[in-house]
User: Fold this.
Amino acid sequence: MVVLYIKYTQMEKQKRFTITKKVAKHGNQTILVIPKVLQEHIRPGTVVEVTLNVIEEVENDRTNSTE
Assistant:
């Protein structure tokens, strides 16, 4: 299941995006991938402020298991 929700608002010289999606895994790292549709607004080197609100937690994450 892929969950992706993007909300865009522009305040005085500030762009604000709300992204709702699942956190991904890359090797041993947990990552949040910025959707390609935001590429024209958020480019490499852009400084952003990130606030994470956990909406739904995974009870048993087998990908982090060392067994």
The chain is about 0% helix and 35% strand. Residues 4-57 form one domain. The longest strand covers residues 4-11. The chain has one domain: 4-57.
